[in-house]
Amino acid sequence: MAPLAQIMLSSFAKPRPTLRILSVRAHAHMGGGTRQLNLQSYILTPNELSTALTKNVPTKISTAPRVIPLCAAWFLPNDPQGRTGQRVFQEKRIPTARFFDLDAVKDHASPYPHMLPSAETFAKAVQDIGIRKDDEVVVYDTQELGIFSAPRVAWTFKVFGHPGVHILNNFRLWVEQGYPTESGKMETVVEEPSHYPTPTLDAAKIVGFPEMKEIARDHGKEGSEGVQVLDARSKGRWAGSDPEPRAGLPSGHIPGSISVPVSELLDPDTGALLPGEELRRLFESKGVDPERPIISSCGTGVTAAVVDAALGEAGFGQPEARRLYDGSWTEWAQKVSEADGLIRKKV
Questions:
Q1: pLDDT tens for residues 24-34?
Q2: Distance separating alpha carbons of residues 251 and 257, to the nearest angstrom
Q3: Cα separation, 319 vs 302, whole angstroms
Q4: Of 160 and 17, which is predicted with more confidence?
Q5: Catalytic annotation on 298?
Q6: Sheet holding 43-44, edge to edge
């Protein structure tokens, strides 16, 4: 084994208590030396990611599928400490990680923040950070926020058909449990862009404003489909008693929506997504029916993906019956009004 590979293997392979067993398969092909890792879970523990990285030490000459940690760090524009994703990525990250800029990879022609980019924009962004179609991508958040924006980036990869994408649960635990980190500017990890084919958007995972308006108008009517809208914003913003963080935007909620604050889905100490069984009980306590279609929403479409990931971890509802409202409240509150009955308030 080459000295560099030995160092990287050593850094990821420190003994750790096993948190959950992950099915990992490594196949060596005679002559080619290629290897495939099959990460079975969408939500991964630090131990699982460390194991996968240990079994998949990258080399310059290998064309085998790789495990790529992808930092999706993002902070609200009004962050009181003025933090940015790029800055915290440079301060502390998983070795060999790449950075996905949520503010850059979006539809810049839209007046609403974080709307999905075009397939061409997505492919170009992924090429620039050197990710290939057959790579296993493990998206993670900041140490400060726990689970926050990583599910949105992971969901974006899924919408564009990337076959191997996962969420680390979470970077704070990765650090606390003593797994390796590095800092400084990235200069050598991405030596050249990859070839990433322009994907096809899976429109079945997305809901647009016209359909949301129809769903809201039909709420409670006899014969309606009974679509459930889960809102990840805080209870105060949903109720209309607390202001929105964006100036001039009214608070309140879509008629018939159910308040599922993202904070209730996370461990209060670690910021990690709660275990599946706890999440299932939480959804049941809010009256969510797993047999009916579910749409996740939030402020700008970011934390709605946390709700979607939590539904998946809980095994709650059928994946094909779960969608995300991309424009979320920022679009909704600018296109409808309380006067027309499409913004409700409940204190």
A1: 333 333 233 34
A2: 13
A3: 19
A4: 160
A5: yes
A6: 43-44, 165-168, 136-140, 67-71, 98-99
